[in-house]
Amino acid sequence: MPQTEHPDGKKIELNESPEDFPRIAVPTVSLVIPSYNRGAYLATAIESILGQTYPDFELLIWDDGSTDDSLEIAQSYAERDVRVDVVAAEHQGCSTSLQQAIAQTQGSYLGWVDSDDWLAPTALAETVAVLAAHPQVGWVYTNHQVVDAAGRVLGLGQNAQIPYTPQRLLVEFMTFHFRLLRRSAYEQVGGIDVTFVRAQDYDLCLRLSEVADVVHLPRPLYYYRRHGDNVTHNQIDMLRWTYQASHQALQRRGLSDRYEIHLRGELTLQPKLEAVPLVSIIIPCYNAAETIERCLQSCFEQTYPHLEVLVVENNSTDGTMAKLQAYQDLAPRPLRVLSCRQQGANLARNAGLSEAQGAYIQWLDADDQLMPDKIQRQVMALEQETAYDLATGDWQWCIDQQQRRVHRFSFGGQPQEDWLLQLLMDHWQPPHVYLLRRQVADTLHDIEAWHPQTPVCMEREYFTLAALQGMKVLYVPGAQAIYNSGLSPQITGTTPYGVRVQSLQTMFERFRSAAEQYEGLEGAHRFLLNQSWELWEPSFELIGQAEQVCWVRHQETQETQMLRDATAQIVQTWLELPGAYPLEDQARRIVRQLWQQTLVSIRQTRGLRAALDAKQVAHALAQQVGLVVGESEHHPVVTTDLDLEPELVALMQGCPLYTPLFGEQRLKVHTVLDSLRQQGWLRQSQDSGVARSCASQPVE
Q1: Which of 167, 317, 432, 618 is deepest in the core (most CB within 10 A)?
Q2: Can you tell me the distance from the alpha carbon of 664 to that of 359, in angstroms, rounded to the nearest whole number?
Q3: Is residue 264 situated within a structural domain?
C-alpha cells in the first residue's frame, strides 16, 4: 500500500482500492473540505483526513468552480477511497458552498477543514470521544498551530488560548479550529447563514453558544496555514463581518438595549450609560493614608460608567480622614465618606452596605486596587449569565518592601467545579476579586457573614458561607484585581497565631452548622469541615530510610512502623520542620518545603525554563505526595551547590506561605497527617506558645 509524507513527519497509508474501506451507510462523522483554487495545498488537507486514527467518517470535497487542478486532485482521492465524495459546483463563494456541502452529508457529528489547512492524526478520535462522553455538549473545539505557506510551524495560535465564555465570544473568536459539531445542534440554529460573505463560522459559533454547551480541548489538533491568499487576509472586510455577527448576537440575546459593539481596530463591548446598573464600591478604611489615594484612583479609572464609591472611615489616627476630605471635592466619580465608630473591618463593611445604593456590590480594601476593566467585565458577564450569583476573576499579589515592589505573583482563575471545596481547603483569594449581586450581599448580611467578632481570615468565612448557601460563582477571564502587601500593617500579619487558630475553629463550627442544610456534601467536604484545629506535631522519630521507604519509632510506645512512597516522603519532610500547628498549616508547610526542593531538582535535571513552568512543577509535586501514580522523577534536593538564577531564588524566597497554590497536593498531605493522628502517632501541644507565629513567614 503506498505511503505519503504528512507535514508533521508521520507516514500515512493511502488506500489502493475502494474495497479497502466499504462504504458505511451512515457514518458517525461527516467532514467537508470546501475548495476553490487550492491545488497547491489540497492534497495535504485530504491526506490528513484519510490518515485519521478514527476511521468512521465520510469526506465530501466541494469544489467551488476551481480553475486550477483542485478538482482533478480531489477526484483522484475519491477513486482510491470510498469514504471520499467530490462535488463539482459552480462558483458560489465559501458560505454557500459550505452550507450546501454539509446538507449533503449524513453523520451525527460534522466539521470542516479549510482546503489549505490540515488535521493532526488524532483530531477526530479525540473530539469524537468528547461528544460521545457528554451528550449535553453540542460542540467541541481544539487549539491550533499556525504554519507558514511552506508548512513550517510558527507557534500555537492565540485565539483558542483565550478562555471561553459565551459573553467573551461576542468580541473574541476563541472557538477557531478545529471544531466538531453535533448535527442536532447545528440544525437547531439553522446552520451556516449564507448571507455572511465572511465570518460565517464566527456567526455560527455565536449562535451555537446560545443553545448548546461547548468543551474546549486544549490540544493543538489543527494546522492553520497563513499565506498571502487566505480568505481572512483582508482584515478590514473581515472585521466588518465579525462586527455584523457580534451585533446580531447582541440583539438575539436581548442585550442591545444595554450594550453596544464598538469597532476600532478590534471589537469591544461597551455598556450604554443610561441602561446599566449601579455598582457600589465599599472600602473599609483604617490608617490607610499611604495607600488610599492609589486605591481610589483605581476606582475612578474604571471603564464601567455607573459607579458610586463609599469609603467607611474606621477611627484612623494617621491623617487618612484629611486625605479623604480633600479627595471628596475633586473626585471624578460619586464619592461618599462615611464614619464607623465601632472598631473593626467587618463592622465597617456592614456599615457601608447599609448605605450602598448599587445593584452590585464590590468589596475593596483600602490598600488594594482594581484593574480598569475589572468591574465592566464582571457586570456584563453577570448580566448575561443570570443563573450565577457572583463573579470572580484573576488577580496579582504584589509585595512591597521599603517603598519598593519586590515581588509580583499572578494567579489566573478558572471555572469552579467545586467552589465549596476550594474555600474549605483555603484556596485563598482576596475579597475584591469578586463582584456580588446586591441580593447576594443582603442575604449574606442577614446571616452575619461579615461577622463582627471575627478578627482574621474574614473573607474565608464570608465566601465559604456564600458557597454553603448554594450560591453559584462565575469565573470571568481578564477581570483582574491587585492585592498589595508590605506597605502597611495588615490584619493577618499582626494577629497572634493563637488568635488566628481560635478564629478558624469558631469559623468552622459555623460552617458545620450551615452545612446541615447543604445538599451535595462529599467525602472531601466532610473531612475538611470536621478537621482538627488543635496544635499537632510528630510523636515519632526517624530511625532509618532507604529509597522510597523509611522507618519511624513512636517516642512513647517505642512501636515502629515502615512507611512507603509518598507517605515516607511526606513524613521525612515534616520532620525537618519543627513546631506545633493545626494540620492544615502543617500540610501547607510540608508542601511549601517539597515545592522548593522540587524546583531545585527540576532546575538541575531540566533547566531553568522547566523549573519556572508551573504545570511541570505541579505535576512533579503531585507525584511527590502521591496524587499521581508512579515514582517521582524529581526527588527532593536538600542541599545543592548549584548557583540558582535570581528569578528562581526570588520565586522560592518571596512566594508567600498562604499563596493559593497546590490545593489538591495540600489536601492529600493533610489526609496523610490526619491518618497518623487517628493512629495515635501525633502529639497534641497544650501550649499555644509552642506554635511559632506565622508573622515570621512571608505571609499576607
Answers
A1: 432
A2: 36
A3: no
DSSP-assigned letters across all residues of 538-576: E-EEEEEEETTEEEEEETTT--EEEEEHHHHHHHHHHTT
Report DSSP letters for 111-136, one per residue.
EE--TT-EE-TTHHHHHHHHHHH-TT
CATH code for the domain in which residue 226 is found: 3.90.550.10
Residue 480 clears pLDDT 90, i.e. is over it: yes
Kindly state whether residue 523 falls inside one of the protein's structural domains.
Answer: no
> What value does the mean pLDDT of the chain take?
85
Exposed, middle or buried by CB within 10 Å (0-12, 13-18, 19+), for 273? exposed
Residue 238 has pLDDT above 80, yes or no: no
Whether residues 287 and 229 fall in one domain? no
Q: Can you tell me which residue has the cell 519532610?
A: 573
* Sequence-ordered list of residues with C-beta below 8 angstroms from that of 460, at least 6 positions apart, any chain: 423, 426, 428, 507
- Which residues constitute the domain of residue 337? 279-515
Spatial separation of the C-alpha atoms in residues 138 and 121, rounded to whole Å: 23
Rounded to whole angstroms, the Cα distance separating 431 from 465 reads: 13
pLDDT for the residue 187: 94
Q: CA-to-CA distance for 180 and 559, rounded, in angstroms?
A: 60
> What does the alpha-carbon distance between residue 611 and residue 495 come to, in Å, rounded to a whole number?
34
CB 280 within 8 A of CB 310: yes
Contacts of 344 (CB under 8 A, 6+ apart): 314, 452
Residue written as grid cell 461528544: 131
Q: Residue 631 to residues 94, 569, 600, 635, 673: CA-CA distances in angstroms?
A: 53, 11, 18, 9, 21
Residues 6+ apart with CB under 8 A from 294: 369
